Amino acid sequence: MKKALALIAALILLLSMAACAGSKEDTQTVGSDAYADLKPLELVGADSTGKGAAGQIFGEYVASRVAEITGGKLTIDYHPNGELGGDADLIRQMQSNDIQLVVCQTAPIVSFIPEMAVFDLPMVFSKYSGDTIDKVLNGKNDFSTSLSSAYDKADLHLLGFLQNATYRLTTAKRDLSSLADFKGLQIRTMDNKNHMAFWQAIGAEPTPLAWAELYIALQNGTVDAQENAADTCVGASFQEVQDYLACTNHILYCNQICMSKDAWESLDPAYQAAIEQAVADAIAYMRPQLEQIDKDNKKILEDGGMTVIEYGADFFDEILALPAVQAVYDDINDNQISGLGTLLVNELSK
Questions:
Q1: What are the C-alpha distances in Å from 177 to residues 82, 144, 172, 241, 246?
Q2: For residue 256, which phi and psi values (nearest 5 degrees)?
């Protein structure tokens, strides 16, 4: 029943998305002469998010808007929820141009673009507003320019980031009211060395595990906990197998969208502009909703029986003051991303 309610909620949001898109006749360029002489073209897009998660809705909105803007001349055959593989599989297929467009969170990109470890810096975004973060990530500045160049070197083309100062949270079978409660916690993480280093720094025992195996692992106690955004937790019905929702806010919940560099460079400039407009429209549409989506999904988890744990500033200060956490921060900034974290903080602080 809970799974059905979550799917219904996602369907309602998708229907409202379509209605909103239909109200943009004054800004879209359906049937524009810019595309009249261009050959019809279909791209393949994908994500591996949970059903109804923001990443899925984001990608499907972009696909819908591209078709609208170009009057159906450019379309994106979009495959959500891991239909074409997990994140690493999708990125490899995109680099080889078998898939042209991928939406995913920032962590899986690190294996392909080391500079993306800037998003792994512990709690680096936690004191800034969604507007400030968006200005830095999607604006024109030294940080965004450096990051775009890093994508280019990996044969990818960065299109944008979707976030609104919402974060990854921790669900567990254990009450995590204090830092001491994390000691020995067996927590599933993505296969990301920096995420694992952070959890180890606060005393937990992280282990990577395939997404498809996670629900059963939580159900049978193979692992005690996992960390994801609230909408992903709802999509996976973790309220059925977890007792606590701890608002650890350790990593920004941020979805990136990018393309194969070869595919991007082969597009007519008019098609490139259509994709850029579609991404901008999708970000503008979804950003105001992300905070509400976060609240709504936390409520679904709570109504499903989970106890929500909120922390004060002293909890985060305690974590950031740990020498082991400081060492993780310094290792990422100094050894992995050549000081890009310093550049990020400078831009955020302006």
A1: 34, 37, 11, 19, 8
A2: -105, 155
Q: How many CB atoms lie within 10 A of CB 135?
A: 17
Residues 292-326 pLDDT 10s: 989 999 999 999 999 999 998 899 989 999 999 99
Pinpoint the alpha helices (H) of the chain: 2-22, 54-69, 87-95, 130-138, 142-153, 193-201, 211-220, 230-235, 261-266, 269-303, 313-320, 323-330, 340-348
Tokens representing 72? 């159906």
Q: Which domains are seen in the chain, by residue range?
A: 169-251+296-348 (3.40.190.170)
**Integer-rounded Cα radius of gyration of the chain:** 20
Ordered DSSP codes for 235-263: HTTGGGT--EEE----SB--EEEEEEHHH
Structure tokens at 222: 């193979």
Residue 254 one-letter amino acid? C
Q: Given pLDDT bands bounded at 50, 70 and 90, which one contains residue 126?
A: confident
CA distance 50 to 97: 24
What's the pTM? 0.81
Written as six digits, the tokens of 70 are: 């170009």
- 3, 43 in Cβ contact below 8 A? no
For residue 123, give Cα distances in angstroms to 57, 251, 296, 326, 346.
26, 6, 23, 11, 15
